[in-house]
Amino acid sequence: MVDQAHLWDARTAAEYDTPGEGMFAPDVLGPTVERLTELAAGGHALELAIGTGRVAIGLREVGIDVTGIELSEAMIARLREKVDASEIPVVRGDMTTASAGEGYSLVYLVFNTIGNVLTQEQQVECFRNAARHLAPGGCFVIELGVPDLRSLTPGTGGTLEHSEPGYLLVDTYDTLAQILISHHVHFDPPVDGSREAGIGRTPQRYIWPAELDLMAQLAGFTLESRWADWDRSEFTAASRSHVSVFRLSTLDR
């Protein structure tokens, strides 16, 4: 089993934030915060795998009380450079088992992070842990990519996802285990015809939308809505990602 805490080390935490760009761009982060604020409905929110606070800080700024669960000490340390524990408390631990109390109106897990849990069994436990934290009728929101297996050509097991000077992103697939490994290749400009390269790898267990819905049912949730993105675009067979809102039963648990 991959040590996820080791993957999210001090170097990764230091390089994680890209203010104003990528997943920190206003047109990405703004709709995320807006939708989650609506779903929190004035209640307390819990972020699983809170990381460096990309989303939680935005929610706190609009008046939503947020608590986090995070496995990586390095990511928590980076968050603490921005806000202290009185503003956004964090429990260090595994999002499948760690407890941060009960009675939340919203639990959320964004940017494919449930894929960091590398077995189906533990992914189900993630849903069950979310349910333990929620008040009856609360919601669990997951942002997740749709596996792009259609891009695999016969006889190959990988795709080139991104290319720019000094960087390549290659994804490889184990379709039996549903494991996707992203290979991040960083290389220096050529010197005398040679290139020095470094490779980082991040594994994920990808989940089909229908499988995700069954995991939700096992934990007492029903699917309330599914969008292609945080702007509530229609989810279709061509969508590359989805935002799924699951509602917990109002019956006593």
Automatic annotation (TrEMBL):
Stated name of the protein: SAM-dependent methyltransferase
Keyword Methyltransferase: yes
Organism: Brachybacterium fresconis
Family annotation (CDD domains): AdoMet_MTases
Chain ranges of the Methyltransferase domain: 46-138
Biological processes, Gene Ontology terms: methylation
One Pfam family cited in the UniProt record for this chain: Methyltransf_25
Gene Ontology terms for molecular function: methyltransferase activity
Keyword Methyltransferase: yes
